[in-house]
Design a protein that fits this description.
The protein has 3 domains: about 100 residues, GTPase HflX, N-terminal domain (Rossmann fold); about 170 residues, 3-Layer(aba) Sandwich (Rossmann fold), CATH 3.40.50; about 55 residues. It is about 45% helix and about 20% strand. The chain is elongated, with a radius of gyration of 28 Å. The strands form 4 sheets. A 6-stranded mixed beta sheet has the order 9-10-8-11-12-13, sandwiched between helices. By secondary structure, it is α/β, with parallel strands linked by helices. Its main location: cytoplasm.
Amino acid sequence: MRATVVVPVLKSRSRGGQTESASTRTPESRLEEATGLAQAIDLDVVNGSIVPVNEPRPATLLGTGKIEEIKALLDERDSGLVIVDHPLTPVQQRNLEKEWNAKVIDRTGLILEIFGRRASTKEGTLQVDLAHLNYQKGRLVRSWTHLERQRGGGGFMGGPGETQIEADRRLLQDRIIKLERELEQVVRTRQLHRAKRRKVPHPIVALVGYTNAGKSTLFNRITGAGVLAEDMLFATLDPTLRRMKLPHGRTVILSDTVGFISDLPTHLVAAFRATLEEVLEADLILHVRDMSDPDNQAQSSDVMRILGDLGIDEAEAEKRLIEVWNKIDRLEPEVHDTMVQRAAGAANVVAVSAVSGEGVDTLMDEISRRLSGVMTETTIRLPVDKLTLLPWLYDHAIVDGREDNEDGSITLDLRLSETEAAELERRIGNGPKPAKEDWER
């Protein structure tokens, strides 16, 4: 379908009486992003317009002159769909469709459409359907003829005087309740999976970032997984978890989450809360940023705002977050070198290219360092009756040396965190008490 993208740029009055933009983003970057969103669902964008709006109109948002100007463009380009990169009220959407004689969807509707196409798991589909129905419920205000008819008949369903719009709302609400129940079951299943992961306490590392920042490409680079990774907005939607080993042998679980975006619809934030809670459970959060995007600072602010809404404040983020400056391969050589030097001199920052692999080893070392905490060096000799601890040791400790003894016991030189050292002592003490020489520090 041939589509036209319209980006309204609203103005807001400051206290000093000076007019300043209501958005922190440049209109050009907003137009580029909205066009990318449209192209993500295979729309043919034939025109894009930036429209200044001094005083938003309650009925149409835009002024009559701009509406007529866009109408002429639609006729000229034979465009039957208009995407307005701004939330529209149901009345505004209906009036604009009448004025332009074309289908109109706002930013929320466009993102919901993309999510509907990208969802592939049962949970993702349920979450998108629920968000879509909540969005539609508030839009049953169209004055189409069939919505004004009244249904007759007796019984409990659609009694006398019930209009078609009321019946439609009731059917939508019934469907919403059914989806919420199904989603509750999926959420319980996810919570059970989390509980099982806690019993085998592998640290969890979560990837977050603005959509198209390169999270899935980095995920594939680190884990060798085959997650879809394309240069488009919201290429992947459903969260993916993979077990992986760090360079020194420690096992962690890496989680690739849904990409964030500015003005994320509240319906989606609510519907995807169960999925986003994977981030809350993470021991370490990798905030992936596309440093080749001129708007990366504003994108970073949007991500941090959503993390704050989830309950991760600045103090918490400082402890658990590493900034991954991605796509440095796209930068000019001078900018690239400066970026790498800045990252090296900053705390909790690593510059990488998920495509070429540059900096990924440094990132893996930093993950290991952050997850290790205060390391304890230990030498132990495992007797034959304790060899069942070997898999646990290789998963939770860094094995620097191993010697297989003639009596079947094994001597290991280990580095492990204080918590895991205490856990090892507990496990060794569960069976027969080892001889003093079997446990040396």
